[in-house]
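Sanity check record (used in CI):
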Amino acid sequence: MKIGVLALQGDFDAHRQVLERLGADVVMVRKPEQLREIEGLVIPGGESSTFLKLLGDAGFEELRKFVTTKPSFGTCAGAIMLAKQVENPAQKGTGALDIRVRRNAYGRQIESAILTSECSLPGGEMEMVYIRAPRIEEVGPGVEVLAKRDGHPVLVRQGKVLAATFHPELTGDTRVHELFLKMVRNGNSGEK
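Expected output for Pyridoxal 5'-phosphate synthase subunit PdxT:
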């Protein structure tokens, strides 16, 4: 199974390491044509506005086509990229996930945190690393909330798309990546 990790900027290598430990064949995606080689895509954390600049209009459109039709997983900035609506400030998202997300909603870098929260994945509580994290302010009717922080969704799934506002790749817990790989294998939303 070939999994792409968008490797333009951000913490793409941490995702690569987790995915390889779980047995995936990882492609570091740096060009739009590489999207044709993969079965699923991870969009890592980083800076969403930088992703937009580096992708350009044509690259963004190729990304949008991929994430709206194939299994995709975004963390932090990647979740922003997958969103239907982005605020603080407003910017475009791919619309692959019916969420409204607020950039940097949990504060500046100094307010980053490592917290433990309940999640509905098998195994119970999960350690979650937040770094200038976005907050999901609203979810559409087809979005399943898998974990929350202070009443706000932090891990969500809709069809073939999974998003986390935290960084599961920075912990030893691989459950979120395992779920994504299951989604890719199943070609859909998978099972918990």
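The chain has a mean pLDDT of 93. If this sentence no longer matches the regenerated tokens, the check is flagged for review.
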